[in-house]
Amino acid sequence: MNVFKLLSRSSKPPQASPAHRLPSSGAVTNPQLFGHDVVDKPAPESNTSRKRKRGQDIAEPSVTLPAGLDFFGNASQKSEVRPKDDGDRKSKRDGEDISSDIILEESVAAERNDAETYDVDECKRVLRSHKLKIVVLEDFAVQEEETEREKRRKAKKRKRDKEKGRKVDKAKAAKRQLYPQPLTSFTQLRSRYEISRRLAENLKAQGYEMTTEVQLAALPLLLGNKKGHLRVQHGSAETGGDSSGAEFGGDIDLLAVAPTGSGKTIAFLVPIIDALLSESKTESDSSKAGPRAIIIAPTKELASQIVNEARKLSVGTGIKAALMKKGMEVVEKPEDALSKQGVDSPEASDEEGDADASSSDDGGIQLPKPNRRRADIVKAGILVATPLAILNALKHHGDKVTELPGILHLVLDEADVLLDPLFREQTLAIWTACTNPHLRVGLWSATMGSNIETLAVGSLNDRWSSLSLSNLPRAPLIRLVVGLKDTAIPNITHQLTYAATEQGKLIGLRQLLHPTAIPSTDTSISLRPPFLVFTQTIPRAIALHSELLYDIPPEAGGSSRIAVLHADLSSGARETIMTRFRRGEIWVLITTDLLARGVDFRGLNGVVNYDVPNSGAAYVHRVGRTGRAGREGGVAVTFYTQEDIPYVKNVANVIRASEKLRSKGDSEGQGEGTGIQQWLLDALPTPSKRDKKNLKKRGVEARRNVKDKDGKGTSRISTKSGYDRRLEERRRGAVEASRRRKEEDKVMVKAKGNVSESEFEGFGE
Ligand SMILES: Nc1ncnc2c1ncn2[C@@H]1O[C@H](COP(=O)(O)OP(=O)(O)OP(=O)(O)O)[C@@H](O)[C@H]1O
Question: Whose CA is nearest to atom 10 of ligand 1?
Fold first, then answer.
């Protein structure tokens, strides 16, 4: 009997032919998560934004691999048209490169239709069907203009609100809601917002046609002001036409909360690249070369992924994207200017020495100092980095941070973690250093606590007062939410498995690794490689890796198919493992929360939470590594033991919410599987606020990397229980002692023999 059958709860019944629905099957699905039954009018028949049922292919991949092998099927495969070499041909307009006239001809008709717009009611319908909610979180300009009058009005309103109760609040919320023109296809970017032709081509070459929900709303919001499109009228935004509405004076600051894998990267990169291109057309001043946009991400892996994406989108545009590395400088620091003028500065020389010592990029060659320093200053328009990497480069004279007046765009990707106590100080220091009055800020994540919103508003206010910018119009802060906030994506299957003990978890994981060894049951789900396994700590990841190292048979690649990735490895080793995993050479990657956020492995079939995540948000991000861009068939398995019971309700609640979301939005009725039963939710204890805080900070007590009384780590992972291990150790010790005794006896006998021999020798004399 399979014990997991009794103790596990899968969120959906097994599917008939999973191979066809695996994320790694290579087929590109509809990237949208919601609104599949809704036809986005006025999209014409020929328009690529025509709606498809979930799972219906947009196009066949050009290289057809067996479903089980094409792990990381590339979205670009489906695009027949690829960008040609940069120097190929020159555009007749604006000096842009033109790579394909075919694309142009094909898209003319579509562009004409794309220029058609929706009326306000249609906007509302489309945005609601895609579960999009856009509100003005803070309209600073209005606040400042009407301070006195507003105060009196607010006092009156509060009184009325008290009498009328919640209804009034709802009415107020509706008033502040926006309905921008939905962008249902990427071709509309050219017809409506006149983005660079080359940028449009690059998007097409990557295979992007239909927009995801977050792109559908965020791109019009961020590009809208370019043509004065964003107009708020009686609680709604509309395009062109009636000009009686209150118009936002400048651009906007945006706080976007959208599901994992929903294409937020493109949503923030396209407006930045477009803005930099517009700027480069108007500005001929080359002294402005250097970063104009900074994108901060919490890990090196995510930062380097964003750089890659930015480079792909800006091919042939002249816009460059760079990844911040040790030894690079963002701006010239005051001491550099002094040293250039021949003034000796002790701090400058100290720091220079440090930078040289830590720099791995100059291959140990010592160039003359001023030249080296100048050569390392970032010239790329888009700079992507972790907070510490930028801050280290900005610090001078101890803790002073060099200002960055040239930065016009600041993006915090995974904003909630960047503004969490772990990174908060560093992130805010960078934000404060961006002193340009026209700076626009974007905060993006799949999860966002209300404390982050408060912090964002506070930071915007502080910045405003410290820079004394009162003579300039203030941009509103707009919040865009896709789906249900802080919920896991609805297109994956969740399984919460009670494994009782540490041993149980290992057995469970082995069962997932060798599914054919165990007879399949109604509730068992199959998990095909490649998949990620998350542990709570680095020592546990290492221990699990060594335990599973020989589980994959040699004929399937053996131990080379399984790897461990964590922050204690060198950057080079981390990069190699990431590349091998993306190529499909590694099938099982064991890791910590280092890879929980942002990292995009398109064809990942599943995620195993070997250790329960530290919070509901952590669960959302970890499981969001599968089911990217609307791909179906991803699986998320979470093991929990006796020790986890006090905390697992967080995870159960997230799964339950995600299942509800699926069953509501799923016209095919697939969402009716009842994974997390109400009785389980009722039975699980609700963790206190303090417990949640502790858990988030340090994880489950029993698995912390503390030493036991023998000085050994308790984070050990093994199929054997501690009792069995002790017995075994004693047995081994006894065998060893007996062997040693025998050896000693032999030596004694020999020694005695030697004595008698020597005695005998003497006897010969
Ligand atoms: N419109 C689109 N059509 C098809 N694929 C898309 C589209 N937009 C993005 N993608 C693909 O979706 C995947 C996920 O995108 P991205 O990494 O930007 O997601 P994300 O929202 O930032 O996720 P996370 O919250 O995990 O960081 C990428 O492989 C990307 O190429």
Answer: 263
Q: How far is the CA of 241 from the centre of ligand 1 (A)?
A: 34
Contact residues for 258 (Cβ-Cβ < 8 A; gap 6+): 212, 213, 214, 218, 264, 267, 444, 446, 480, 481, 482, 483
**Which range among 157-166, 404-413, 484-493 has the greatest average pLDDT?**
404-413
> Going by C-beta distance under 8 Å and a sequence separation of 6 or more, which residues neighbour residue 62?
77, 78, 80
The segment(s) of the chain belonging to CATH 3.40.50.300 are 134-149+174-228+242-281+390-482, 492-515+525-665+675-702
The alpha carbon dihedral of 283, 286, 287, 290 has a sign of positive
Q: Please compute the mean of the pLDDT values over residues 598-615 and round it to a whole number.
A: 94
C-alpha–C-alpha distance, residues 390 and 383, integer Å = 9
- d(Cα 581, Cα 148) in Å, to the nearest integer? 60
| Binding-site residues, ligand 1, Cβ < 6 A | 31, 75, 208, 210-212, 215, 258, 260-266, 446, 598, 600, 602, 624, 628-629
Tokens (6 digits) for 715? 């984070």
Q: Answer whether 40's CB lies under 8 Å from 182's CB.
A: yes
List the one residue out of 294, 360, 276 whose CA is nearest residue 331: 294
Cβ–Cβ under 8 Å, residues 350 and 262: no
Distance, in Å, from the CA atom of 129 to the CA atom of 32, rounded to the nearest integer, reads: 11
Highest mean pLDDT among 242-246, 587-591, 721-725: 587-591
Confidence check: pLDDT of 230 > 60: no
Cis, bond preceding 530 (omega within 30 deg of 0): yes
Q: Which of 24, 265, 312 to mutate to test the pocket of ligand 1 (most atoms within 8 A of CB)?
A: 265
Residue 119: how many other CB atoms lie within 10 Å: 12
Helix (H, G, I), strand (E, B) or coil at 245: coil
Cα–Cα dist 185/203, whole Å: 11
361-415: pLDDT as tens digits = 333 334 444 444 554 788 899 999 999 999 998 987 777 889 999 999 999 999 9
Select 134-149+174-228+242-281+390-482's CATH number: 3.30.360.10, 3.40.720.10, 3.30.390.50, 3.40.50.300: 3.40.50.300
How far apart, in whole angstroms, are the C-alpha atoms of residue 322 and residue 689?
41
For 57: left if phi > 0, alpha if psi spans -120 to 50, otherwise beta; the answer is beta
Element (H, E) at 383: strand 382-385
Q: Calculate helix-pair angle for 538-548, 502-513, nearest 10 degrees.
A: 50
* DSSP H or E stretch at residue 696: helix 689-698
Q: How close is the Cα of 467 to the center of ligand 1, in Å? A: 36
Q: Which CATH superfamily is domain 492-515+525-665+675-702 in?
A: P-loop containing nucleotide triphosphate hydrolases (3.40.50.300)
The per-residue pLDDT for range 541-584, each reduced to its tens digit, is 999 999 999 888 888 888 999 999 999 999 999 999 999 999 99
pLDDT at residue 284, rounded to an integer: 59
Residue 481 — φ and ψ, nearest 5°?
A: -120, 130
